[in-house]
Amino acid sequence: MDKPLSEFVHDVVIDSKKSDLLSAMVGKSRNTLLNELNPENLSNKAGMDLLLPVMEKCDPEDRIMHGLAGARGGVFLRLPEMKGADGARRQFMQAMGELGALARSYEHATSEDGPGGAAVRMDELEKFEAQAQAALTGLQGAIVACRAELRLTKE
Fold first, then answer.
1. If you write DSSP's letter for every residue of 64-75 in order, what string do you get?
2. Dist. CA 109–CA 115, nearest whole Å
């Protein structure tokens, strides 16, 4: 995100051309809403309680989430709707967390600020391998959860 959050959110609302729907959803006039979201207005600011309605009505491409995640060095991945599959969804989320930890472990081990750049000690390699194993276990858990929740056909 190359601009302040308030400016980014304001731009998303303006670009979406859905400020009328959003203002009705949050119970404010369109002018009041846009005034509160205006990053140049320092005296009358929107609260964080508006962020979710803005994202719901004006940000179907998840630009705000991508911007926030990118600003923190991460990525945003929307999981598909899985009605009645809470176990599988939870397993996928845990697996993604383990993969993120694996990437951070690799980055730490090989960075200039890490233990020795690309040259790592055996204990750092073992930590990386343990994290890789945790990521694989997480993915396997997601596969098992999906299999348990899917119905097979007779064909």
1. HHHHHHHHTT--
2. 6
